[in-house]
From TrEMBL:
5-phospho-alpha-D-ribose 1-diphosphate binds at R79, R104, D131, P132, M133, L134, A135, T136, G137, G138, S139, D200. Residues 6-208 form the Phosphoribosyltransferase domain. Pathway: Pyrimidine metabolism; UMP biosynthesis via salvage pathway; UMP from uracil: step 1/1. GO terms for biological process: UMP salvage; uracil salvage. It comes from Christensenella minuta. Its EC number is 2.4.2.9. It is an enzyme of class 2 (transferase). GO terms for cellular component: cytoplasm. This is Uracil phosphoribosyltransferase. It comes from the Bacteria. Binds 1 Mg(2+) ion per subunit. The magnesium is bound as Mg-PRPP. Its cofactor is Mg(2+).
Length: 209
């Protein structure tokens, strides 16, 4: 079964504290989410394979290592996941970006896909699914299901803040998907918001209510 990894680097914890603060404005919130995503993907990609190459330095030839051609795809879940994309691209500028959007039918409670566009070679890429909050885990689980239906199997989920319930939902539905988070909070309130959380990440990113 896949694991849930809590990334507890001091810089991450510091920046997460700042985005929790209700007084952090939209501009600063957006910049912090970008920085947090960049710090997280640094850890998420720690297991990328390397190959040895030879380069010529100003002094002599050197045997050194580069990433072994492993292709990465980034898939933000609309809309809040968009706030994490730039931070990941800062570290992996060659990554391709897909997008997925879905909502839950109010009558059937089944996920309804309203947008999904992945890189044409997504099946050959390691896909990193992005969403700042993992609350009930329903949307993330459904998004991963839709991605798998398109033939993709190498998937990681990256969330800034998660609830224990959300992690468990994803792990039950997708035991092959590793989950990376910067904080695991107490749980969910009656409105399925993470407590203490940070409120609605999408609204805080884009200045809406």
């Amino acid at each position: 079964m896949a694991s849930a990894h809590v990334l507890d680097h001091p810089l991450l914890q510091h920046k997460v504290s700042m985005i929790r603060d209700k007084n952090t404005g939209t501009k600063e919130f957006r910049e912090l989410v970008k920085e947090i995503a960049m710090l997280m993907v640094y850890e998420v990609t720690r297991d990328m394979p390397l190959k040895e190459v030879e380069v010529e330095t100003p002094i002599t030839m050197a045997r050194t290592k580069v990433i072994a051609g492993k292709m990465v795809g980034i898939v933000p879940i609309l809309r809040a996941g968009l706030g994490m994309v730039e931070g990941v691209l800062n570290l992996i500028p060659g990554a391709k970006v897909g997008h997925i959007g879905l909502y839950r039918d109010p009558d059937t409670f089944e996920p309804v896909e309203y947008y999904c566009k992945l890189p044409v070679d997504a099946q050959e890429r390691e896909l990193i699914v992005l969403d700042p909050m993992l609350a009930t885990g329903g949307s993330a689980s459904d998004a991963i299901t839709l991605i798998k239906k398109r033939g993709c199997s190498n998937i990681k989920l990256v969330n800034i803040i998660a609830s224990p319930e959300g992690i468990e939902t994803v792990r039950k539905a997708h035991p092959d998907v590793d989950v990376y988070v910067a904080a695991v909070d107490e749980g969910l309130n009656d409105h399925a918001y993470i407590v203490p959380g940070l409120g609605d990440a999408g609204d805080r990113l884009f200045g809406t209510k």
